[in-house]
Design brief:
alpha/beta, Leucine-rich repeat, LRR (right-handed beta-alpha superhelix), 6 helices, disordered N terminus
Length: 254
């Protein structure tokens, strides 16, 4: 019996939910059910759908029902640190939502509903610490976004439509396996070269042009004398690689 009870998680009653409503510093009503050991979305809280904020973070939820759309006044929704593998299409009906935290879950690109692009008032979106290998270009429709967090995923590129959102001030894409730019770029030649070379005699140059050419020749000779003869590339043993394995970070967080 004990094992079965543990799998069901803590049962939230309407009375418990009502007692969990807090008033924020700016006067909004927040239903705080974080760190309650909840494994199933408590249907009783649908009777409290007039709250302004809903916190279900740090639980063990695997699914959010489509009925979440009944929280029409919701401006702030925190679902971070659960076991969510998908999101309901109804989340796109939360037209007043300004803050959405979905970090530290098990969301994949495939299970991100297209309806997310309906959240026209969304200003902060956190999708860090998930299993995303791509970002839908449709998120570029969220013109009010100011902060987007995509850290610790499996991303190899960020769509231009997202990176160039008109009001975007902060984009966190740390610890994603982006291609190393140093492997794609050609080695930088320390000596600038020209495609066409014109030869003239010194007597045909004016004084200023002659002086400029002599100065350039002196610089070139100086550069040749300072370039080391070794063909080995510089070694920086203490330099950290810009990419890390997002998977390892996720395991540590979980």
């Amino acid at each position: 019996k004990g094992k079965g009870k543990g799998q069901k998680g803590k049962r939230i009653t309407l009375k418990t939910a009502k007692n969990s409503i807090r008033i924020t510093f700016d006067g909004r009503r927040r239903l705080d059910l974080s760190k309650m050991g909840i494994t199933t979305f408590p249907k009783c809280i649908l009777k409290l759908d007039d709250v302004d904020e809903l916190d279900l973070s740090r639980n063990m939820l695997k699914k959010i029902p489509d009925s979440i759309q009944r929280f029409q006044k919701l401006r702030w929704l925190d679902l971070h640190s659960n076991q969510l593998e998908e999101l309901p299409e109804g989340i796109g009906m939360l037209q007043n939502l300004a803050y959405l935290n979905l970090s530290n879950n098990k969301l994949t690109t495939k299970n991100l509903p297209v309806e997310l692009n309906l959240l026209k008032n969304l200003r902060t979106l956190n999708l860090g610490l998930n299993r995303l290998d791509n970002i839908p270009t449709t998120l570029g429709a969220l013109k009010e976004l100011k902060e987007v967090s995509l850290f610790d995923n499996f991303l190899t590129a960020i769509p231009t439509s997202v990176a160039k959102l008109p009001k975007l001030k902060k984009l966190n894409v740390k610890r994603n396996p982006f291609p190393d730019p140093t492997q794609e770029e050609e080695p930088v030649d320390s000596i600038k070269r020209t495609e066409t070379l014109y030869l003239v005699q010194e007597k045909d140059l004016c004084c200023s042009c002659l002086k400029m050419c002599q100065d350039e020749r002196d610089k070139l000779n100086k550069l040749k004398n300072t370039i080391p003869s070794s063909s080995k590339k510089p070694n920086f043993p203490s330099l950290l690689t810009p990419n890390s394995t997002a998977k390892e970070n996720q395991e540590q967080w979980r």
